[in-house]
Amino acid sequence: MNQMQIYGRDQANQILCGQEGSRELQSLLSSGDVPFCRVYSLPDRIVGALMIDLKSGEEGDQQLLPYFLSGDRFFVVAEGEKKRLAEELRDRMETGEKDPAELQFCELLEAVLTNDLACMQQMEAGFYRLEENLLGTLVDYVGPTREILCCRKQLLEREFYYQQLADLCDILSGNKNDFFSEKGLDLLKDIGKRADRLCGYVQTLRDYLMQIWELYEQQVDVQQNKTMRILTVVTTIFLPLTLIAGWYGMNFEHMPGLESTWGYWITLGAALCIALAEIIYFKIKKYF
After folding, report:
1. Smallest Cα–Cα separation from 201: which of 277, 128, 282, 116?
2. DSSP assignment letter at 64
3. What is the pLDDT of residues 161-219, one digit of tens each?
4. Backbone angles phi, psi at 5, to 5 degrees
5. What CATH number does residue 263 fall under?
6. Where are the beta strands (DSSP E) in the chain?
7. Cα(27)–Cα(9) distance, rounded to whole angstroms?
8. Which of 56, 92, 103, 240 could be a cystine partner for 111, CB 3.0 to 4.6 Å?
9. pTM (global) more than 0.85
10. Coil, strand or helix: which one is 176?
11. Which structural domain, as residue segments, surrounds residue 17?
């Protein structure tokens, strides 16, 4: 029975009852969804848990899939949503039923990484769109910040995910229990290299996201500078008018123009001329 089988928790315990590896599998099943891969290399079998990324882009989109691998048997333990996930992975596997269990396991690792490159390219395209949107007029300061931080979190999770797969392949390719054949070891090394390349791709996207963040900060600074420049111009225009108002608000008894019929209109005209002259000057200097 070399084809990967999918069993429930109780059925897996019955199959391995009293056999070597049952204690390790029970420990994995009772530990819950620990967010990292586990592997136990026993003399003639391997027991562990494989973390699967659903590529949904949402928080908590990584599932842990316990597995058992021996010379003639390979099965995973999954129920409910995890069972459907395991069935999808099995459908992607290209090895036949007569292939050794170790090759079935390697093919499962290959299936886990199916379409990962396309998923990463979609994320990169999303970053391109985000960068183009940030080049426009900024209105909302909160929205882009939240989106960038969310993308950063996804990249951190994805980088940790690929690092774990690469480490898992390195541990298994060490072949301490002489379980894998030469062909199986070659496949494990190839999968490990592929996980390393994807991890490098993630790091490149992280650097690109940091550049987008710097661009966003520059856009925010530019908009704030424009706002401050407008406020400065308005303040400068009204500063002489405020001086005139303060000067003539002292109300000294013998202050010139207080009793003049045209005093108010002369002062008003002078204020308007000063304001108009300042506006023309600022326009010539392109301050606004």
Report:
1. 116
2. E
3. 999 999 999 999 988 888 888 999 999 999 999 999 999 999 999 999 999 888 888 87
4. -105, 155
5. 1.20.58
6. 5-7, 38-41, 45-53, 62-70, 74-77
7. 12
8. 92
9. no
10. coil
11. 1-112
